[in-house]
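User: My collaborator sent over this chain with a note saying "see what the structure looks like." That's all I know about it. Can you take a look?
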Amino acid sequence: MRPGRLIRCDTFPCGDVRHDRFEVPSISIDAEAISVIMVSEVPPPDPSDGYYARGDPLFARTTLQAFRDAGRDVQGMRDVVALGVYLTTAVKCAKQGSSVSAPTIASCSVLLERELGLFPNTRALLLMGDVAIKAVNAIARRSGEPRAIPAGSTYKIRGGDFRFRGARVFPSYLQAGPAFFIETSKRRMIAEDIDAALRFADV
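Assistant: Without extra context I'll predict from the sequence alone. Here is the result:
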């Protein structure tokens, strides 16, 4: 299965993102082998920095380090996928500015909901940052379900036992991008959250 061939946006209703940088991972993946889904914020402005790009892309570099910090011996994104982990973004277009509006997050959560539905054996959702948390809560709200993650700062709510459609949800901080190497306290917590999610999913 290639998620990028199945998840498309036909209308592009959002005004604060770059429609030319629409991206859903197009890697070939065994959906049934995935037990953990890591959802971060948005695709990078440069496609060569994406999770599954060739070479040494920025998003892959910081994510691989996060998994190593969590005690997993991964050398490339194939190793992460081999653990049963799929990585994607909550919003499918790169940002125009420094943030993404709530209407854009809610609108694009329709695509994220379809994408999450491709993986029937998901046991854990790692929500990396506020955009990912808001997107999953938007999915729940639209469906009349209780919010997956309660309101509050990530520092206070991380580690709680939250559930969404049969999966345990782990709210954490954004691991994709240069800030990962700067914010050392968050880096430690990211590692703890990744380890907790992998252990919960028996990875």
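A starting point for your reply to your collaborator: The chain has a mean pLDDT of 95.
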